[in-house]
Amino acid sequence: MTEDPSYPEAADLVDDPSDAANPGTMATSSAAPLPANEDERLAALRRYAVLDTAPEETFDRITRIAASMYRVPIALVSLLDEGRQWFKSRQGLEISETPRELSFCAHAILQDDVFVIADPTKDPRSRDNPLVAGAPGIRFYAGAPLVNPEGFKLGTLCIVDMRPRPDLTVGDLQPMKDLAAMVVDQFEMRVAAGAALEELEGAATERWVREMTEHQLLLFVEFVPTSMAMFDTELRYLAHSRRWAKLRNVEDQTLIGRRHFDVFPEVEQIWRDRFQRVLAGEVLSCDEEEVLLVTGSMEWLRWEMRPWRHPDGQIGGVIVSSDVVSKQRQARLELDANSKFLNAVLENVQDGIVACDAEGRVTLINGGARELLGLPHGPLSMDPIDHQPGLPGAPADQRLAGAEWPLLCALAGQRLRDTEIAISPPNGRHRGVLASGQPMMAEDGTKLGAVVSLTDVTERIEYRHRIEESEQRFRGAFETAPHGMALVDTDGRFLAANDALCKMLGYSTEELLRTDFQSITDPEDLQVDLGYVRRMLAGEIRSFQMEKRYIHKDGHTIWGLLSVSLVRALDGSPIHFVSQVLDLTDRRRTEEQLRQAQRLDAMGQLTGGIAHDFNNLLAVVMGNLQLAVRSVDEQAPAGQRIRAAIEAAGRGAELTKRLLAYSRQQPLEIKAVDANELVATMHTLFNRTLGEQIELETVAAEDLWVCTTDPTQLEAAVLNLAINARDAMPEGGKLTIETANARLDHRYIGQNSDVVPGDYVMVAVSDTGCGIERSQLDKVFQPFFTTKPKGRGTGLGLSMVYGFVKQTGGHIKIYSEVGHGTTVKLYLPRDDGTGESLQVRRVEVEEPVGGRETILVAEDDPAVRDVAVELLTDLGYRVLAAENGAAALRVLRDNPSVDLLFSDVVMPGGMNGVDLAEQVQLERPAMKVLFASGYTEAAAARLDSARFSGSLITKPYRREQLARRVREMLDRP
Questions:
Q1: Which is it for strands 574-583 and 557-568: parallel, antiparallel or unpaired?
Q2: What phi, psi does 376 have (nearest 5°)?
Q3: pLDDT of residue 599
Q4: Which helix (H) or strand (E) holds 207?
């Protein structure tokens, strides 16, 4: 046994460098050196003629024994050829050969004993071998050389395992040498057996060929798959096929040597005459002849009779072959009938049908195609289609190249569907044609040819041209109109739409032209709209106008003023509708805001009037009570009752004070106020009021502007909001009070019509409470409305804050998400230097910087989403939009070019903005994310401070703020 030097117990860990010149010494690289007698060894291997031969059971039995004996998954008989290792037998291995430079056996044939590598991963000769480092992961090898009688080592008998085997001994491996010797014995036996066979073959060949020729001829005739018989000149049977006897119902008789007419005496005279004609030298045949068989059935036969001759040329007899072709004839007749039926169908099809074979020769052209192409009826030319100028082409001034003809395109493998071409048939006018076609393939994938259908759409094209001419007359006004315009056919499908309409509805022009007006109309308005359309088509009205709701591409509703008129042809038939749509969405939103403001003002005037009158009554009541209490003993029951009445009147006075605040009729002391300082002085009051369960955080802006307001009322308003926040967090939570400078520009005013643009100081109060339903947000500032349980609030707190802020010339905004919390923002006018003016200073807006990157906006509120898309588009960005997290993921996966995700923090559907950002960064780690929230930055950051740091913009945001934050995010490294 040759020891493996990669193991510590081996005598030497490194081969002696002095042995490098000895070709039998193992090299230190994975590739083994060649034996010194390599040329002679290869010649000896080839003399055995065993390379690339089929598997043999003898050798497979030896490798099975080796695999079983040593319990390994792989055993091989490996032969080392020039440049490769080939396996005569293999157990547990699929491949039949490997490169020689990867072969372990190349090392083994350099040894005189069994060669072993107990763990190839630790041996420098094999650890870098791909068969060790990769699949199949060899971890043990042992190979016994195959040594022939001349001493040449032809290869090995080897075993391979996928686990190290350091425990094998010399005794364990001795049987491998015996098995290797058995392999060589088999090689020697093959050589000896081959020589003996050649000697025997030479002596027996002539006699064997002579005997086998006659025998094989008889076998051939007997088993030939047709009805055939061979006769001599006396018409005695010399041979016949089994099918001949079966067809004539004489399978149980011996025919050889008997005369044909003795076996079948009833044969008609016509057949006797035919035999005599053939014996005279004629060859007779018939493809179909109806014959009465001896079985009594009438069948159709295909037959042939011809003489056979001796070597000297004399006729030796007759050979007859015949077959029943009744079924084939019936099938042919049915096929002919079907073909005639199909041809009749094709001739009556209005569309043209043209087909060709695999060589491009026209094999079918129906009447519709002939008429369309101006071709005469008659036989087809067998020239290829590109040599037949009368077939589909273009007018002379727009001639198609031959390879562009529909039939040749289909023959080349293209599938055409409604491809429009123009043709110019002889002596006819130009025709517009829609071509559809495809190649024809057999079941085995062989190309049989191609077929094309041709539909005359000349009238449709001319109609389209009339539409185009009509469009050109007002295209300038159509394209540049500031409101939406569209042409709609009488089925409701869009024929054209201008940019204003596409932008209004959120569709591209191509998308809109693939739909109809029914699909984008709110279902509640559709029947009214269709009623007007039906009346116009019936001639009852010439036009109509209505306010209706459209469905934007992202699903939100748009209000529009629709004006429709019908264009008719000269004959009075309707051509198309002309629709004009004026976007009323902003106007309706403004009207609703105005109605809300008017409603609040009306309620303010009502409550103010009531408060004034009630104050007058309370003054009388309290004055008389105070006079009365002086005339009685205060400790007496009557005195106590009067004192209780005075206290109740005082609470009534406090209530009227709140009503006066809501109606903006309370007296204010307007001063220049530092909001940071005011909030700081309230800390003790907050701690006493809020309790231990509420965590308080204040975030004071640096360089905060001075605002003009009544400090006492501002303090009361902030405290009122803090108490509301505490009540919204019965189990505890976090309250954030934040100040900031704010600039409300004209774009913000577009969404909030009751605000004067300018500079403001913002004071925001945010909580982590239960939140307020969106449907209730527009009611929270109304007096006596409350979301608190019965008996827990008067409903005057927020209305008082609202009245105070409005009375100072400011603005109030509430933002809430159910389950996440609420933020109320107070915008107080910036002091202009006098400390007394309520006039808000006008804003000088800086020009923002945009870009050309692609931004995805994820926002569930349609109005907010539209504003964000419009602002970013106006800044030059390419903008995509999604209504929730799941939709945003789909858009991102379809658009790998997105540079920034701009997402709302709180969204419905089970995936908020933070969840969306986490999923996006798993899929695209480099993606930048900017969050938006109605909460202030400090309040929103409580959800996940690490993720929100520096990546949040608060609502409402100005165009300049948005531009700056987006640019900061995109420019981050």
A1: antiparallel
A2: -75, 155
A3: 56
A4: helix 170-223
- Supply 274's token pair: 């035919």
Q: Tell me: the pLDDT tens digits for 504-522?
A: 889 998 998 888 988 889 9
Predicted confidence (pLDDT) at residue 603 exceeds the cutoff of 60: no
CB 16, CB 175: distance < 8 Å: no
C-alpha 766/C-alpha 814 separation (Å) is 10
pLDDT digits (tens, 9 = 90+) for 565-599: 998 888 888 988 988 898 887 777 666 655 555 55
Q: What is the largest CA-CA distance in the chain?
A: 170
pLDDT for the residue 63? 93
| pLDDT tens figures, 147-191 | 999 999 999 999 999 988 887 766 678 888 889 988 998 888 877
CA-derived radius of gyration, the chain: 51
Encoded tokens for 174: 């001795």
Euclidean distance between CA atoms 827 and 739, whole angstroms: 10
Return all residues near 973 (Cβ < 8 A) that are at least 6 apart.
none
User: Is the C-alpha dihedral spanning 198, 204, 209, 215 positive or negative?
Assistant: negative
Residue tagged 């303090």 (tokens): 715
Structure tokens at 411: 């023959």
848's CB contacts (< 8 A; 6+ apart) are 875, 959, 960, 962, 963, 964
Q: Which two tokens stand for residue 62?
A: 């030896």
Percent of the chain with pLDDT over 70: 75
Within 8 A by CB and 6+ apart from 868, the residues are: 857, 859, 902, 932, 962
Copy the structure tokens of residue 666. Answer: 């309370």
Letter for the amino acid at 734? K
What distance in Å separates the CA atoms of residue 103 and residue 101, rounded to the nearest whole number? 6
- 3-class SS letters over 885-938: HHHHHHHHHHCCCCCEEEEECCCCCCCCHHHHHHHHHHHCCCCEEEEEECCCHH
- Tokens describing residue 522: 């709110």
Q: Which residue has the tokens 């006396």?
A: 234
DSSP H helices, 224-321, are 242-247, 260-263, 269-279
* CA nearest neighbour of 813 among 741, 767, 754: 754
Given this model, what pLDDT does residue 649 score?
Answer: 63
Q: What 8-state DSSP symbol labels residue 259?
A: B
Contact 953, 932 (CB under 8 A): yes
Beta 900-904 vs 854-858: how paired, if at all? Answer: parallel
Tokens of 473: 């007359």
pLDDT at 226 over 90: no
Give the pair of three-digit tokens for residue 370.
Answer: 């002939």
- The span from the CA of 108 to the CA of 417, in Å, is 67
Give Cβ neighbours of residue 606 (< 8 Å, ≥ 6 apart): none
Extract the runs of DSSP E, i.e. beta strands, from 748-877.
Answer: 758-767, 811-817, 821-829, 854-858
DSSP letters, 449-516, are EEEEEEEE-HHHHHHHHHHHHHHHHHHHHHHH-SSEEEEEETTSBEEEE-HHHHHHHT--HHHHHTSB
CA nearest to 120, candidates 134, 101, 109, 100: 134
Spatial distance between the Cα atoms of 301 and 104, rounded to a whole number of angstroms: 70
Element (H, E) at 701: none
Place of tokens 């997105």: 898
State the first-to-last Cα distance of the chain, in angstroms, to the nearest integer: 65
**How far, rounded to the nearest angstrom, does the alpha carbon of residue 707 sit from its chain's CA centroid?**
55
What pLDDT score was predicted for residue 960?
78
Per-residue pLDDT tens for 418-449? 888 877 766 666 778 888 999 999 888 888 89
| Of 668, 766, 658, the residue nearest 711 (C-alpha) | 668
What is the DSSP annotation of 640-685?
A: HHHHHHHHHHHHHHHHHHHHHHHTT-S----EEE-HHHHHHHTHHH
| Residues contacting residue 894 through CB under 8 Å, at least 6 positions apart | none
